[in-house]
């Protein structure tokens, strides 16, 4: 059990960006490569867990043994996550989910027109907040990608979304956040406690996050 603290546990990870369709050839997305979420899935598997990875479009391959479900839009991610959530022990939302989607997704390619074009957007569901409202004894972990007031925003999100903790990454630091192989993370707890780590490979960062999650799981199950 010491080297496999997640043996017999079910872990759900979300990873990558979402794609919000504008028309058959265009979409809105973000800079997430999926590396952080795929590292979490691999490390959770190596720590003994049964892992489901719900992934937006990436070029990555899941670690053998990890069950992957591919989605494109935030609404697709929402539906699958809610369906899969019920019997999980730990849920980690590393995906960068679009907060907005185009109000109208055109059936045919949108044609150029004279002058400016205004794009109307509407809100996507906040998946993490919904999970927080139905948390039960699960360990629920979010990510916060910020460019300013990183720790203050993260603590506020952890509290508001009813999380065990949130992983803050400061997007202004070169070795952290989107696309790169490393991250600089702080675990921010709803009571304001903070556990900060130096720059690490995303695989190492993933392992640290999972070890803290495993400790919390044992505490809540006692
Ligand atoms: O994929 P990589 O290139 O490796 O980059 C990793 C990462 C920077 C994407 C990752 O470390 C990260 O920070 N992911 C969360 C990015 C993000 O969308 O943060 P946010 O502050 O917008 O969202 C906060 C949390 O709510 C996240 O856990 C997110 O999954 C969740 N969320 C957000 C919006 C929404 N509609 N539903 C959600 O569940």
Summed up:
It comes from Thermanaerosceptrum fracticalcis. This protein has 222 residues and is of the alpha/beta class.
Q: Which of globular, elongated, flat, extended, rod-shaped describes the shape?
A: globular
Q: Name the ligand types.
A: ligand PMT
If you average the pLDDT, what whole number results?
95
Total strand count, please? 14
Q: What composes the largest sheet?
A: 8 strands, mixed
Return Rg in Å. Answer: 18 Å
The CATH class label is Alpha Beta
Order of strands in the sheet with most strands? 5-4-1-6-9-10-12-13
Order of helices and strands: EEEHEEHEEEHEHEEEEEH
The CATH architecture category equals 3-Layer(aba) Sandwich
Number of DSSP helical runs: 5
CATH superfamily: CoaB-like
How many structural domains does the protein architecture include?
1
Strand-pairing-aware structural class:
alpha/beta
Low-confidence stretches: none
Helix content: 25-40%
CATH topology: Rossmann fold
Q: Cα distance, first to last residue?
A: 16 Å
What is the percentage of strand-forming residues?
25-35%
């Amino acid at each position: 059990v010491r080297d496999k603290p997640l043996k017999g546990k079910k872990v759900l990870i979300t990873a990558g960006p979402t794609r919000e369709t504008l028309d058959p050839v265009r979409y809105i997305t973000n800079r997430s490569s999926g590396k952080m979420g795929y590292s979490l899935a691999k490390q959770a598997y190596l720590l003994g867990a049964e892992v489901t990875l719900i992934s937006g479009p990436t070029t990555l391959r899941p670690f053998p043994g990890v069950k992957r479900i591919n989605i494109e839009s935030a609404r697709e991610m929402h539906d699958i996550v809610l369906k899969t959530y019920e019997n999980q022990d730990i849920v980690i939302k590393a995906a960068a989910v679009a907060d907005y989607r185009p109000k109208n997704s055109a059936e045919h390619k949108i044609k150029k027109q004279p002058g400016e074009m205004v794009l109307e957007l509407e809100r996507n569901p906040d998946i993490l907040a919904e999970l927080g409202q139905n948390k039960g004894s699960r360990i629920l972990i979010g990510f916060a990608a910020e460019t300013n007031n990183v720790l203050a925003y993260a603590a506020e999100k952890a509290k508001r979304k009813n999380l065990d903790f949130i992983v803050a990454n400061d997007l202004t630091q070169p070795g952290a956040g989107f696309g790169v192989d490393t991250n600089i993370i702080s675990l921010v707890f709803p009571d304001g406690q903070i556990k900060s780590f130096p720059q690490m490979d995303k695989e190492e960062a993933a392992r640290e996050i999972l070890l803290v999650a495993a400790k919390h799981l044992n505490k809540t199950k006692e």
